[in-house]
Amino acid sequence: MPASMDRPPAGHPFEGDPVFDLHVAGKMAIRSTAPLEGAADLSLAYTPGVARVCEAIAADPEMTRHYTWVPNTVAVVTDGTAVLGLGDIGPAAAMPVMEGKAVLFKQFGGVDAVPICLATTDTDEIVETVARLAPSFGGINLEDISAPRCFEIEQRLKERLDIPVFHDDQ
Protein backbone atom coordinates (compact mmCIF):
# COMPACT_ATOMS: atom_id res chain seq x y z
CA MET A 1 0.00 0.00 0.00
CA PRO A 2 1.43 3.43 -0.87
CA ALA A 3 2.48 5.45 2.18
CA SER A 4 0.00 8.19 1.24
CA MET A 5 -2.85 5.70 1.83
CA ASP A 6 -1.37 4.51 5.12
CA ARG A 7 -0.86 7.60 7.26
CA PRO A 8 -2.28 11.10 6.99
CA PRO A 9 0.24 13.85 6.18
CA ALA A 10 2.29 15.34 9.02
CA GLY A 11 0.58 18.22 10.74
CA HIS A 12 -2.96 17.04 10.03
CA PRO A 13 -5.52 18.29 12.59
CA PHE A 14 -5.96 14.90 14.29
CA GLU A 15 -2.27 14.04 14.65
CA GLY A 16 -1.63 12.31 17.97
CA ASP A 17 -5.34 11.77 18.69
CA PRO A 18 -5.64 8.14 19.90
CA VAL A 19 -9.07 7.67 18.30
CA PHE A 20 -7.79 8.71 14.88
CA ASP A 21 -4.51 6.84 15.37
CA LEU A 22 -6.48 3.60 15.91
CA HIS A 23 -8.37 4.17 12.66
CA VAL A 24 -5.35 4.90 10.42
CA ALA A 25 -5.74 2.72 7.28
CA GLY A 26 -8.91 1.21 8.75
CA LYS A 27 -9.42 -1.46 11.38
CA MET A 28 -9.41 -4.50 9.11
CA ALA A 29 -7.34 -6.51 6.66
CA ILE A 30 -7.83 -9.69 4.66
CA ARG A 31 -5.23 -12.40 5.13
CA SER A 32 -4.68 -15.73 3.47
CA THR A 33 -5.46 -18.94 5.33
CA ALA A 34 -3.50 -20.93 2.74
CA PRO A 35 0.29 -21.09 2.71
CA LEU A 36 1.77 -19.37 -0.33
CA GLU A 37 5.49 -19.96 0.02
CA GLY A 38 6.33 -21.03 -3.50
CA ALA A 39 5.17 -22.14 -6.91
CA ALA A 40 3.78 -25.44 -5.60
CA ASP A 41 1.55 -23.66 -3.07
CA LEU A 42 0.45 -21.18 -5.71
CA SER A 43 -0.51 -23.96 -8.10
CA LEU A 44 -2.73 -25.49 -5.39
CA ALA A 45 -4.31 -22.24 -4.19
CA TYR A 46 -4.81 -20.73 -7.62
CA THR A 47 -4.27 -22.14 -11.07
CA PRO A 48 -4.32 -24.95 -12.05
CA GLY A 49 -5.42 -26.57 -8.75
CA VAL A 50 -8.33 -24.26 -7.99
CA ALA A 51 -10.11 -25.45 -11.15
CA ARG A 52 -10.80 -28.82 -9.51
CA VAL A 53 -12.50 -27.11 -6.57
CA CYS A 54 -14.54 -24.94 -8.95
CA GLU A 55 -15.69 -28.01 -10.86
CA ALA A 56 -16.67 -29.78 -7.63
CA ILE A 57 -18.74 -26.77 -6.54
CA ALA A 58 -20.33 -26.48 -9.99
CA ALA A 59 -21.35 -30.14 -9.74
CA ASP A 60 -22.58 -29.78 -6.14
CA PRO A 61 -23.12 -26.19 -4.90
CA GLU A 62 -23.28 -27.50 -1.30
CA MET A 63 -19.50 -27.92 -1.56
CA THR A 64 -19.32 -24.13 -1.22
CA ARG A 65 -19.89 -24.70 2.50
CA HIS A 66 -16.74 -26.78 2.74
CA TYR A 67 -14.31 -25.18 0.32
CA THR A 68 -14.90 -21.40 0.49
CA TRP A 69 -15.16 -18.68 3.08
CA VAL A 70 -18.90 -18.29 2.43
CA PRO A 71 -20.39 -20.10 5.47
CA ASN A 72 -18.34 -18.10 7.99
CA THR A 73 -18.59 -14.70 6.31
CA VAL A 74 -21.23 -12.01 6.75
CA ALA A 75 -21.78 -8.86 4.69
CA VAL A 76 -22.34 -5.80 6.88
CA VAL A 77 -24.38 -3.57 4.56
CA THR A 78 -25.40 0.06 4.99
CA ASP A 79 -26.51 3.05 2.98
CA GLY A 80 -25.32 5.40 5.73
CA THR A 81 -28.75 6.89 6.46
CA ALA A 82 -29.07 6.13 10.19
CA VAL A 83 -25.55 5.77 11.56
CA LEU A 84 -25.35 5.53 15.34
CA GLY A 85 -26.31 8.93 16.75
CA LEU A 86 -24.96 10.66 13.67
CA GLY A 87 -27.96 10.22 11.37
CA ASP A 88 -27.67 10.39 7.59
CA ILE A 89 -23.94 10.80 7.05
CA GLY A 90 -23.69 8.85 3.81
CA PRO A 91 -21.83 5.70 2.83
CA ALA A 92 -18.24 6.98 2.97
CA ALA A 93 -18.56 8.41 6.48
CA ALA A 94 -20.33 5.23 7.61
CA MET A 95 -17.33 3.01 6.75
CA PRO A 96 -15.55 3.34 10.14
CA VAL A 97 -18.72 2.16 11.90
CA MET A 98 -19.15 -0.76 9.48
CA GLU A 99 -15.51 -1.72 9.99
CA GLY A 100 -16.13 -1.59 13.74
CA LYS A 101 -19.14 -3.87 13.42
CA ALA A 102 -17.11 -6.28 11.30
CA VAL A 103 -14.36 -6.33 13.92
CA LEU A 104 -16.97 -7.16 16.59
CA PHE A 105 -18.23 -10.10 14.52
CA LYS A 106 -14.68 -11.45 14.30
CA GLN A 107 -13.59 -10.76 17.86
CA PHE A 108 -16.70 -11.97 19.67
CA GLY A 109 -18.19 -14.48 17.25
CA GLY A 110 -15.29 -15.78 15.19
CA VAL A 111 -17.19 -14.75 12.07
CA ASP A 112 -15.48 -12.92 9.22
CA ALA A 113 -17.41 -9.85 8.12
CA VAL A 114 -17.03 -7.53 5.15
CA PRO A 115 -18.27 -3.93 5.41
CA ILE A 116 -20.20 -2.79 2.33
CA CYS A 117 -21.32 0.83 2.08
CA LEU A 118 -23.77 1.35 -0.77
CA ALA A 119 -23.99 4.62 -2.70
CA THR A 120 -27.77 4.46 -2.95
CA THR A 121 -30.75 4.96 -0.67
CA ASP A 122 -33.22 3.48 -3.14
CA THR A 123 -34.93 0.47 -1.56
CA ASP A 124 -35.16 -1.50 -4.81
CA GLU A 125 -31.49 -0.86 -5.62
CA ILE A 126 -30.38 -1.94 -2.15
CA VAL A 127 -32.42 -5.14 -2.32
CA GLU A 128 -31.13 -5.94 -5.81
CA THR A 129 -27.51 -5.17 -4.95
CA VAL A 130 -27.52 -7.23 -1.76
CA ALA A 131 -29.28 -10.10 -3.52
CA ARG A 132 -26.59 -10.08 -6.22
CA LEU A 133 -23.82 -10.10 -3.59
CA ALA A 134 -25.46 -12.81 -1.46
CA PRO A 135 -23.76 -15.84 -3.07
CA SER A 136 -20.47 -14.58 -1.59
CA PHE A 137 -21.73 -14.62 2.00
CA GLY A 138 -23.24 -16.90 4.62
CA GLY A 139 -25.38 -14.10 6.04
CA ILE A 140 -26.38 -10.47 5.59
CA ASN A 141 -26.36 -7.91 8.42
CA LEU A 142 -28.25 -4.77 7.44
CA GLU A 143 -26.76 -1.97 9.50
CA ASP A 144 -27.72 1.66 10.07
CA ILE A 145 -30.36 1.89 7.34
CA SER A 146 -33.10 4.36 8.22
CA ALA A 147 -36.63 3.34 9.14
CA PRO A 148 -39.08 2.51 7.75
CA ARG A 149 -37.10 1.40 4.66
CA CYS A 150 -34.95 -0.95 6.73
CA PHE A 151 -38.00 -3.11 7.54
CA GLU A 152 -39.02 -3.48 3.91
CA ILE A 153 -35.45 -4.18 2.80
CA GLU A 154 -35.03 -6.83 5.48
CA GLN A 155 -38.35 -8.50 4.69
CA ARG A 156 -37.77 -8.57 0.94
CA LEU A 157 -34.29 -10.01 1.35
CA LYS A 158 -35.51 -12.67 3.78
CA GLU A 159 -38.12 -13.72 1.23
CA ARG A 160 -35.62 -13.76 -1.63
CA LEU A 161 -32.47 -15.24 -0.10
CA ASP A 162 -31.68 -18.63 1.38
CA ILE A 163 -29.21 -17.24 3.95
CA PRO A 164 -29.87 -15.41 7.24
CA VAL A 165 -30.70 -11.71 6.91
CA PHE A 166 -30.94 -9.56 10.01
CA HIS A 167 -31.14 -5.92 11.01
CA ASP A 168 -30.37 -5.39 14.67
CA ASP A 169 -30.78 -1.61 14.88
CA GLN A 170 -34.57 -1.35 14.99
TrEMBL record:
Keyword Cytoplasm included in the entry's annotation: no
Residue stretches in coiled coil: none
One Pfam family in the UniProt entry: malic
UniProt KW Nuclease keyword: no
SUPFAM superfamilies: Aminoacid dehydrogenase-like, N-terminal domain (SSF53223)
Keyword annotations from UniProtKB, A to Z: Oxidoreductase
InterPro entries: Aminoacid_DH-like_N_sf, Malate_Decarboxylase, Malic_N_dom, Malic_N_dom_sf
Domain of life per record: Bacteria
GO molecular-function terms, A-Z: malic enzyme activity; oxidoreductase activity, acting on the CH-OH group of donors, NAD or NADP as acceptor
Domain Malic enzyme N-terminal: 25-158
Signal sequence region: none
Identification of the protein by name: NADP-dependent malic enzyme
Species name: Nocardioides guangzhouensis
